[in-house]
Write a structure and sequence with these properties.
7 helices, mainly alpha, 117 residues
Length: 117
């Protein structure tokens, strides 16, 4: 919160966003977002209230939980080392779950050593 306040004051003085980022130890993109919020909200207090409220929400649930991992590994063993696309097909058919092939290969790489053919 103090970094936002300091950045807000420095932006009002006309100091460049790069200098503010270096001074506060944040990325330049962060100061750009704060600057955009300055234009959007108009005053510091309303932005800080909005910022605090955004941080108090619940986090998004992980997409790859332990159950999904076990299902992927069991399908791989059950169907004789099948590829990610077939695992995706069986997940949709048997468990009615949509999983990206990239996610399937990430899960498989945790347990197996994968190589391209």
């Amino acid at each position: 919160m103090t970094k936002i306040t300091i950045a807000w004051e420095l932006l009002e003085q006309g100091i460049s966003k790069s200098h503010i980022a270096n001074h506060l130890g944040v990325s330049r993109w962060t100061t750009i977002r704060w600057s955009q919020a300055n234009q959007e909200h108009g005053d510091l207090q309303s932005f800080l209230e909005h910022y605090q409220q955004a941080k108090t929400g619940s986090r998004q649930k992980r997409k790859t939980d332990a159950i999904l991992k076990r299902r992927i590994w069991s399908i791989r063993e059950k169907h004789h080392q099948c590829c990610g696309q077939k695992i995706q097909y069986f997940l949709e058919k048997e468990y009615d779950s949509q999983v990206n092939v990239t996610t399937i290969y990430k899960v498989l790489s945790e347990k197996y050593r994968l190589r391209s053919k």
